[in-house]
Design goal:
Layout (H helix, E strand, L loop, with lengths): L12 E9 L4 E9 L2 E7 L2 E8 L4 H11 L11 E6 L4 E6 L2 H10 L3 E2 L12 H4 L14 H14 L1 H6 L3 E6 L5 E7 L2 H14 L8 E4 L5 H9 L4 E4 L5 H10 L2 E7 L2 E6 L14
Length: 280
């Protein structure tokens, strides 16, 4: 069988010919569609996992994944990073302490993950349901701050505006001003990219909160907890497991953050303040 040839994706989206069909006509158009590419993460020469992701902000993705999946404990443990274009995607070579490679080998996660796969090849229940640290401290947040952050987000989702096919994860200050936005075809990748950007920029994750344009699955809560993010607000619903993990980890979790309202599912740390305009 002949080997399939691919164009290496170097941009987050590309133009493609399409046909727009409605009840009256069919017309040729040019549409922007989101790119996705296989991204291989290799630690100290040992292949670890392949994720399907938007081929932009790859340094943020690699650092964020390494932190949120517990490969390294802090950004300081990352000794170096090299991104190498391949025929069909990218290999990211990362240098970490030798003892971290032993942990990787034990997990036996040299597998391919689907777009935005949160468990990324975990082979056992214990690997998928790993312990997460308790998030302590954190800035209080009002309903209005979450409302403000969600209002700003659509205008900053440039990739989604072009393609209609991507998720976003964003970081807001306590007043709801968005400071960082990352997009990807996978919701987990978007959050990993945000976590990587925060860690790379030395941002204190106790001084703000994160918003995501997806449902709040348990993996999203796990990643938030690993990054020390105390407040996570999602535009859609959480799962029951996500709520349980959020309560155990001390992550304040809000869902259905749309318009002027949101649903608060976990807030043991009482970070969401009940100010005068709070709507329960």
């Amino acid at each position: 069988m002949a080997r399939r040839e691919f164009d290496l994706a170097t941009e987050a989206h590309r133009a493609t010919d399409a046909v727009r069909v409605n009840e009256k006509s069919a017309s040729a158009v040019v549409e922007q569609i989101a790119e996705e590419a296989p991204i291989a993460l290799v630690y100290n020469g040992v292949p670890h996992v392949v994720v399907m992701a938007s081929p932009v902000n790859l340094k943020d993705l690699a650092l964020g994944f390494s932190l949120s999946e517990g490969v390294i404990a802090s950004a300081a443990e990352l000794g170096g990073m090299e991104i190498v274009p391949e025929q069909t995607g990218y290999s990211i070579y990362l240098s970490v302490p030798p003892e971290r490679v032993e942990v990787i080998a034990q997990r036996r996660r040299n597998m391919t993950a689907r777009t935005g796969c949160g468990v990324c090849g975990a082979e056992t229940i214990e690997q998928a349901m790993r312990d997460v640290p308790k998030v302590k401290g954190g800035q209080n947040v009002t309903r209005l701050a979450i409302v403000e952050a969600m209002k700003q987000l659509p205008a900053l989702q440039t990739l989604n505006a072009a393609t209609g096919a991507t998720h976003a994860a964003a970081w807001a200050d306590p007043d709801g001003k968005l400071l960082l936005v990352r997009e990807d075809v996978g919701r987990h990748n978007a959050l990993d990219k945000l976590i990587g950007a925060l860690a790379g920029g030395g941002v204190d994750t106790a001084q703000g909160f994160a918003v995501i344009t997806s449902r709040a699955s348990y993996e999203m809560v796990q990643k938030a907890a690993m990054a020390g993010i105390g407040v996570l607000a999602a535009v859609s619903a959480p799962t029951a497991l996500a709520v349980r993990i959020a309560r155990e980890a001390g992550v304040t979790l809000a869902g259905f953050a749309r318009g002027e309202r949101c649903m608060v599912y976990a807030d043991a740390a009482r970070r969401l303040t009940r100010n005068e305009d709070w709507q329960a």
